[in-house]
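For consistency, the fold was encoded as tokens, as this record shows:
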Amino acid sequence: MSRPDPATSLNGVQTGHICDSCNKQIQHGDKVSMYATWYDEGGWTPRRTWCMKCCPGSVDPGTEGADEVIVEAVFWSHQLAGVRVKDRSRPIEQ
């Protein structure tokens, strides 16, 4: 079964309002970055949300042995809009 592209689906999960690094409040219309992981049973799971100042440049090193992604998007009505994949780390197939 193929995985959906994280740029089109993050399971419709609403994101928080505060940067996970600097605690800056994220406002409606702000550009943000998010780290998410793919789990076969749950799909894309958002893990961290950052303001653009705090966003890491890449998933390096991969930390969970899962398909991991960093996306950029606009925080809009408590969801992400215009999602673009910034970096992705896929697990090594055995």
Observations:
- The chain is about 0% helix and 40% strand.
- The radius of gyration is 13 Å.
